[in-house]
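Course assignment 3, question 2. Fill in each field.
Student: A.L.
Task: Predict the tertiary structure for the chain below.
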Amino acid sequence: MNHLPSQLLRIGASLVFSLVAIGLFTKRRPFLIVMTILRSYASALTARGALGREWFFYAASILVIVKTSIDVYGDSRGVFSRVISFWLTGAPESLDDLRRLLPYVLWAIPFIWLGLGLCVMRLRDAGLPRIFAPLFFVPAINILFFIACLILPSARTQQDNRLESTTKGIVARLVPDSKLGIAGFSVLVCSLIGVLGVLFGAYGFGNYGAPLFLGLPFFMGFLSSLLYGAREPRTIRECTGIALLAICVTALALVCFLIEGLLCIAALFPIACVCCVIGACVGFGVQKLPPGRRNGLQSSLLCGLALVVGATLPVDDSRTLSSQTTIRINRQPADVWRHVVAFSEIDPPKEWLFLQGVAYPMRARIEGTGVGAIRYCEFSTGPFVEPITVWNEPHELRFTVTETPPALTEWNPLGTVIAPHLKGYFQSLGGQFLLTEVVPGVTEIRATTWYTHKVAPVWYWSLISDPILHLIHTRVLEHIKAAAESR
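Answer field:
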């Protein structure tokens, strides 16, 4: 706390510098600037009224400066990097990290309240529904949402301005004149960029991270909206519609050219659509600029720069995640133990996901007993090799995983797909079976799997992997239960 006065001095200096910069840019007196920003905050408390993009930028910048300066004060305790990680990836790494972050999260509540109120006011000013406001809380995507709020023009300006319907130079020669023709051109160009982006990112660089899953859809939505409005202004509904059509055509092309399977396309589609719609809104805002400031090439280059900056977001996340499933069996732990260590053939699956190619367990065998024994849990795509690290019969079996088979077999009606992400991007680290006799003659088994993702954003993909792991656990535990109780 000895550095608190100097820290407050730096915060004050940052605020003064910001107000002076705003005053020079707007040519207004500092007192009027302060009063306007304070009125914006007062309105943000109840999210009433509208706020133009200029004052949204000023008010939000002041919040960011104050909040970041205070967070940096805790960097000596190693917290600031955790705050940034929490902001980008959406979850602390451990319970200890959560306890360390809790004071910062509580301190952030007033800033979250004001920031959300400012975003609602900005959406109202841009003529957009408030249904987009929850994007404020979505990690990584909220960065694109803030960019859209900074660029989207006021709805009043949109009604007053009538932009020129002709373009010059190369755009005039390439872009068709008819509405249907320019729509097809926009979809074709953006779909081609999407397919090439997947080929270069996934197959060329093995990058299954934020640039591929967030940046590429955002850029496709932005460019499709910009091209579609090259001849004449389009409504935001038309811009988002043409952007979503480009995403759908890209997904169809990835399937037809055997680049991806239907299951992975379905998993990626929701987050790609969200980023694409945000990009389309940004493109809609750019096309509403006055003709003298609107230049398609420069706008594309600026958005390309934003895509490059987006590449600095986490490509993958090495955090260890876990999934647990519990079941009760009407037998003593000693009667259940041998069915846990190794189990016989499980009946063919009936679950829809397993039938579409997701790897499922079939049987398990073990070589040896005690610590050092090797357990082989055979899945439909290959065996998990599991050296035993804890053998506490009949209460605990724990193991590491030295070999992980492919997570799924891509299902594509047109042929076989061998995508890079099928092996190595989902990595199982270990597992545990914990047997507890809750009442005499009743055993509770808790199955745990520890794993990592080499894809980002982890918060999104864990929403998919956790239910699948729970389904796998349930398949094994139900089989163990049936085998133990059938004696």
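Instructor remarks: Residues 74-91, 159-171, 308-316 have pLDDT under 50 and may be disordered. The first helix runs from residue 4 to 26.
Grade: pending
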